[in-house]
Amino acid sequence: MNTKNKQVKDYLENVYQIVISRNANEPEFHQAVQLFLHSLAPVLEKYPIYMEKRILEQLVEPERVISFRVPWVDDQGVTQVNRGFRVQFNSAIGPYKGGLRFHPSVNLSIIKFLGFEQIFKNSLTGQPIGGGKGGSDFNPKGKSDNEIMRFCQSFMTELAKHIGPDVDVPAGDIGVGAREIGYMYGQYKKIRGAFEAGVLTGKGVHYGGSLARTEATGYGTIYFVQEMLNSRDLTFEDKTVVVSGSGNVSIYAMEKAIQLGAKVVACSDSNGYVYDPNGINLDTVKQIKEVEYNRISTYVDKHPEAVYKDHCSGIWSIPCDIALPCATQNELDEEAAKTLIANGVKVVAEGANMPSTAEAIDIFLNNGVLYGPAKAVNAGGVAVSALEMAQNSMRLSWDFEEVDGKLHIIMQDIYKSCVEAADEFGYSGNLEVGANIAGFRKVADAMISQGVV
What we know:
Blueprint: H1 3-22, H2 27-37, H3 41-46, H4 49-52, H5 55-59, E1 64-73, E2 79-90, E3 96-102, H6 108-124, E4 130-136, H7 145-159, E5 168-172, H8 178-192, H9 213-230, E6 240-243, H10 248-259, E7 263-268, E8 272-275, H11 282-291, H12 299-302, E9 307-310, E10 322-324, H13 334-342, E11 347-349, H14 358-366, E12 370-372, H15 374-377, H16 380-394, H17 400-424, H18 431-449
Parallel strand pairs: 3-4, 3-5, 6-7, 6-10, 10-11, 11-12
Antiparallel strand pairs: 1-2, 2-4, 7-8, 8-9
């Protein structure tokens, strides 16, 4: 190791240790930062100005962290109290942009890891949006519609003080769909006394939402995988696909993969997974998840040839050509990665945020698997959110085909950016390094240009 390499390595380790010491008991945030910093050594060696200007020290510190209580009254008239969060991480290239997650696992570490990843994901889209994230430990499951409405109204009563079309534009995430966005927008409108459609994305199409937004993350995932397959003269035709999860991302990734000729044989929820050797019937999954709001285990009631098994992690034991982890963080570990390799997987692409552990990623890269990192693969959702913001600003509404066409081009451009960055810095074929470098440089250069440093 030469002197310059050692200097950069020591610098990166020092930044990481600062993160550890300042953010105790935040393992998800530590993991996200470590995975990101791991990619940047060649950039800092070639462009030491990023070290001189202390860009990384600034990037790992959010510009603003907001934590607040959310009191609401349940159907029994009892006051409940949850925690709300909004982390406004970086606004160098545009207003903060990122989803709201309602799930009992939500804490500051998870929101910070998601917000940190969002900076570079948003940068990769080419759209003028910065990085942020928010949410609450509120669990919508099992709650009545009125309880969810009251919670959303209370949550927005505080959040409204900190957001705006040119300041911070939240969207949905796990536990936050069109219903929750609608309740929050209604409360925001009441507080502001104005119809500021661009303050939230993921809205209903009848009041400023964009067509293709529901499908965007899942479709975008498949468009990115298409580019990965093209690099080896492959297609989706006759490929066997396993998709974890059964929410929006999973459903529409399955839909587009099936349209392109693939056979999707498994999907899951937090309780377990279903395997259908004849191919998953997507209409049944949509009925279960989007209409009945039921568990995926009920799939076998309508398709007795399928098999349901408890423990969702077992889904990775099913042989497949393409694995799409689309559920949640750290769902795919070292053991699962080895099993996928042994069963001949060719592509692993992350529809969820940070679903693969660092050990799993190394296994994929070291075994020649085409690996697509989350910040690139699942950027389609936020890309179409930015297109929704553009439509709101122009008081226009584009048809489905126009939005979908723009999404397809954006995903192709993201793939190209990742490939070019990896090639430039000596990591050809490594899309993880390419995504991190490409996302980083746009934000870092903007920070330097604005004199933020």
